[in-house]
Amino acid sequence: PIPSTGEQLPVVGLGTNDYGVTDPEAYAQRKEVLGALPALGGKVVDTARGYGDSELVIGRAVRELGNRDRLFIASKTPMGGDVSGGRAVIEESFRRLQVEVIDLMQIHNLHGLDALMPLLLEMKAEQKIRYVGMSTSTDLQYQDFLAGLARYPVDFLQVDYSIADRSAAERILPHAQEKGIAVLINMPFGGRRSGNLFPKVRERALPGWATEAGIGSWAQFFLKYVVSHPAVTCSIPGTTRLSN
Questions:
Q1: What are the 10-residue block averages of pLDDT along the chain, 244 residues in total?
Q2: Taking each helix axis from N to C terminus, what angle separates 54-65 and 87-97, rounded to the nearest 10 degrees?
Q3: Rounded CA gap, 186 and 234, in Å?
Q4: Do β-strands 182-186 and 44-46 pair in parallel, antiparallel, or remain unpaired?
Q5: Helix axes 87-97, 113-125, angle to 10 degrees
Q6: Residue closest to 56 by CA, chosen among 80, 30, 82
Q7: pTM passes above 0.90
């Protein structure tokens, strides 16, 4: 559940850092993922202005699929550059995603936090944004992240966390539990410090107890570790194609 409302979310969603494509075949693969996600039990689609044309691709695909009402669409404000444009900076995501309401809008890696968060809270009050949050993808920002959480009443935080990058469990995740803040997890398959975890296990068999725990692949192994933390609401692994 999202602590602030009790709304339920599936624990595995979709990260879309690699969705800003123009090639028709690549677009078709990503559209297939967005179409299959609800049928497979997923809902959360996380994107960002900083992911190139990801918002545009998602907006087009969801319009063509007609499944907006089955998705929880989250985006983020620009990660760099001038954000003095105020509401226009935020409203650009509505245009690109072709939506009237965004389920979750986050301040991306704290950039422009004090300029943009008051506007996000205004737009939440206007019911244009359902939830507001903050994101980070590096433990170098954790201290500033906690300071921001102390200043603003957010519904969500997004942080990097994996079996190989556990520092979020020291202060960030306990803080979210204590304050009743929902948590999205980015980079569950390895973060900036550890790197991609799959090459490290490519020649290794799953442990013998994995089957008893309902684990049939290393991806499931890594994800189960992440979502087993009681503070975690949803993990958003990057996924660009549907695989059997």
A1: 98 96 97 97 97 97 98 95 89 97 97 96 98 94 95 97 96 97 96 88 94 94 97 96 81
A2: 40
A3: 9
A4: unpaired
A5: 60
A6: 30
A7: yes
Bridge partners of residue 234, in order along the sequence: 184
| Cross-strand pairs, 105 | 75, 132
C-beta atoms surrounding 192 within 10 Å: 12
**Angle subtended at Cα 167 by Cα 134 and Cα 199, rounded to the nearest 5 degrees:** 100
For residue 29 the two structure tokens come to: 């693969």
HSE, side-chain direction, 13 A CA sphere, residue 3: 20
Does residue 124 sit in helix, strand or coil?
helix
DSSP output for the chain: --TTT-----SB-EE-TT----SHHHHHHHHHHHHHTTTTT--EEE--TTSTTHHHHHHHHHHHHT-GGG-EEEEE--SSS--TTTHHHHHHHHHHHT-S-EEEEEEGGGTTHHHHHHHHHHHHHTTSEEEEEEE-S-GGGHHHHHHHHHHS--SEEEEE-BTTB-GGGTTHHHHHHHHT-EEEEE-TT--TTT--SHHHHTT-PPPGGGGGGT--SHHHHHHHHHHTSTT--EE--B--S---
